[in-house]
Amino acid sequence: MAGFWIINTELAEVVDRLTIDYGGRIVGVRHACVSSIDPCVVYVNPDLAYVPDLLAIDHDSGDVLWTIPLVEDFKPEFIYEIPDGRLIVTGGTSGKILIIDPSE
Fold it and tell me: Rg for the chain (alpha carbons), in Å?
């Protein structure tokens, strides 16, 4: 399925579903993190081999706001935003952990 669902785990219900258009293609998502610094931004790991970046998307429209390049041969496994706005991104098979400042 393309896009992703936002689920309220306390109520066990779907809150929203977003479709992401990346260069004219609708893409699925492996992992997502709604920003606590800017709740209009969702950081996502696209479910496509040809997208080597994280995407920052608009929470309401699903439009890509900007891309965040990753190091070569890094497959994101988990995305977490720390209180200062930086992202911690783990890579399962690479054994690497990246700390990314999305504002740079």
Answer: 13
